[in-house]
Amino acid sequence: MRKKEKIEGILSxxxxxxxxxxxxxxxxxxxxxxxxxxILSAQCTDDRVNIxxxxxxxxxxxxxxxxxxxxxxxxxxxRSTGFYRNKAKAIIGSASILITQYGGEMPxxxxxxxxxxxxxxxxxxxxRGNIFALPSIVVDTHVKRxxxxxGLTKNTDPVKIEYDLMKILPKPHWIRFNHxxxxxxxxxxxxxxxxxxECFLTEYCIKNLAK
Length: 211
What we know:
The chain is mainly α.
């Protein structure tokens, strides 16, 4: 099967099975809330983050509130998300920079976003895709795992995987590919035991092709 034909088949199947409407799994109302929620989501489930941020965003209703938050107190507020010391420090630092350097506005440039404390390409692309609707590929654990299973990349480094996918996927599909693959990873192509008998992508899976 030619690579172009394979990509078209995968994207068509995803569009048929999952919604083509993009939906962020993290709850937020402002760009900075999405940024902080995404920082908290590292090595943590979206469901847990949404539980934490429901209280967190009520307690700290503005960027200023986060910028001047007590570090030790904020650490306890986000403790259940894991790596809470680094996350709390990153949130306070990012809030301060957004206020002092950007007047409280969220930059859309990926280089500026990744200069914020605790913000890597994954977090930056979540913001770019959901806030600014800029074509962005977010390589989370599901995208990483399933992209390898589908033979779309041989790399394990998230940044290299991102660039591999950018080369082969049409830009209009980038954002919804993220959401569809995450949904697929949660529902069917799980780790470590995928539900292959329920999967509609088996003809493209390298595990199936190797048989």
